[in-house]
Amino acid sequence: MDTALEAGGSFTRLWQELTNQRYVPDWFKDALLLEQRATEIKAYESIRIPGLLKTEDYARVLVRERKVTAPSDEVEQVVKTRIKRLPLIRGNSPFLWFVIKESALWAVVGGETVMRDQFRHILTLVEEGVIRVQILPESRASIGMCEPFRVMALSATQSVGYLENAQGGEVVDAPERVNELSTLFGLLISEAHSPSASAALVKEINGDRYGDVD
Prior knowledge:
Order of helices and strands: HHHEHHHEHHEEEEHH
CATH topology: Endonuclease, Chain A
Number of strands: 6
């Protein structure tokens, strides 16, 4: 259809988007499409490692715990869909900035090997300049007592927010609500460790708890 109608790849991109969403929960589909179009993503995570940064093993443990009755092939398809998110958006070279509450680093998911590899993955992305990460210390945890959220810039003049909750999530496009999330993110980064200190803290926890001395 692309060739016949000289659509310049529009139908191919639409097909890919629909195919990629097969194993995506309905409540996240809009956010996923926005994520793939974003030029900048600023995300706060207070519970676990952010979705875009998860390793395959880390994601698999979480998926299995939530989908206890799902067959293994379905679990694997969901895991593959989730870990493809970062490679998909890297082609657009978006600016990716994460603030992670320190307690999320202490929550053990899947055991020492899974956590060690997960921390290594984050540090590699930081060292390669793919992402910017700041850790919100426990001493300032009160300011981060909120659900995970993100602000995604789609253009120089348009941004949307995304709020997570226990049953899914919500896309926010009202300017006043998006501005409120942007202000909150600014407060969080002002209270978080610097990027270099945050990387050092991740390395320290990985070494002390999981024996990673590399």
